[in-house]
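ESCALATION

Customer reports they have been waiting on this structure for their group meeting. Please prioritize. Original submission:
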Amino acid sequence: MHSAGQALQDVLQCLASNPGNALGNPEFQRRRKTFAGQLLAAIQKTPLFNDALGLMSIFEAAPPLSKTVTITYGGATKNYS
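Update from on-call: job pushed to the front of the queue and completed.
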């Protein structure tokens, strides 16, 4: 699960740093393939993670890409740095 969350963050980071035609970007395709493989492995091991809540749990469990994080849950927002 953790590695799938990290792979998702890699995909999102690639999209943010290279806007435009992502499907023509070999680096995006590589990261997307890695994410798909990691997500498939997580789903096969734990069927709970084949729904949206599981995917968001994976993403939120991965380490942040920056030193500051903002988490909003249940109407409350907390900043960590």
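Sent to customer with the following note: The chain has a mean pLDDT of 78.
Escalation resolved.
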